[in-house]
Amino acid sequence: MNIEEEIFKRANVNYKLLIDYGFKKNKDEFIFEKNFFNDEFKAVITITNKGISGKVIDLQVNEEYLALKTKMSGKFVNNVRDAYKEILIDIKNNCFETNYFISNQANRINKYINKKYKNDPEFLWDKFSGTAIYRNKNTNKWYGIIMNIDLSKLDSRNGEVEIINVKLDPNKIKNLLKQNGFYEAYHMSKKNWISILLNDTVKDDDIFSLIDQSYNLVSKK
User: Fold this and answer.
1) If 141 and its partner were Cys, which of 96, 212, 218, 220 is the partner (CB 3.0–4.6 Å)?
2) Between the CA of residue 143 and those of 100, 133, 163, what are the distances in Å?
3) How far apart are CA 36 and CA 47, in angstroms?
4) Quick check: 202 and 210 in contact, CB under 8 A?
């Protein structure tokens, strides 16, 4: 994951704010340029409906400073990288709206839970900043856990994904595991919990129904 993807992965752009911030519109692109690091470098940030990209130009040679796109370290490179990150973070703080989660489906699920059960996600672990739990206010029991993991934890593929774990009747779990998008529970009891991939493989309404079932199960004291 590159620098831009890491910083903006839980953020949605507000296009109305880009021009005021200093972005220039060119057809379908919004472009922002800024000299930094004592005018030795220039950041060029491009935002489209496909996402955000950036590059750093070494103004002494007028070429892209490729060291930032590698794992190269050292005091000078790290200082340039940190200064570039500050520019990106300021853009995020001023032109983007922060989401709790990475995927659109996870954020839609959060809105559903908040509207129906008046629950906000609880982020309990600093080490696992993308993991959130939802608990029944009456019993204090968890009925949903959203987390971001590598897909290799579930099957033979790789890449960062988000899942939701819900608690269900064991017979229900057996039937769901025959369908695409459902997996044996990750980091929970495989007998009573199931993991659902949040990449729109499973329809929102189907997931909402399973969340309701999970909520009802943990409502029993």
Assistant:
1) 218
2) 18, 8, 14
3) 20
4) no
DSSP 137: T
Domains belonging to the chain, first-starting first, are 3-98 (no CATH), 104-217 (3.90.1150.30)
CA distance 207 to 196: 8
Selection from 217, 192, 10 nearest residue 106 by Cα: 10
CB burial readout 123-148, b (16+ within 10 A) else e = eeeeeeebbbbbbbeeeebbbbbbbb
- Return the biggest CA–CA distance within the chain: 69
Kindly report, residue by residue over 82-136, the tens digit of the pLDDT. Answer: 999 999 999 999 999 888 999 999 999 999 999 999 998 999 988 888 899 999 9
Cα(184)–Cα(133) distance, integer angstroms: 18
Q: If we measure between CA atoms, which residue out of 156, 206, 214 comes closest to residue 188?
A: 214
Q: What is the mean pLDDT of residues 139-164?
A: 94
CA distances to 94, 136, 169, 200, 207 from 175, in Å = 47, 26, 10, 19, 15
Q: What is the DSSP string of 149-205?
A: EEGGGTSS--SEEEEEEEE--HHHHHHHTTSTTEEEPSSS-TTTEEEEETTTTS-HH
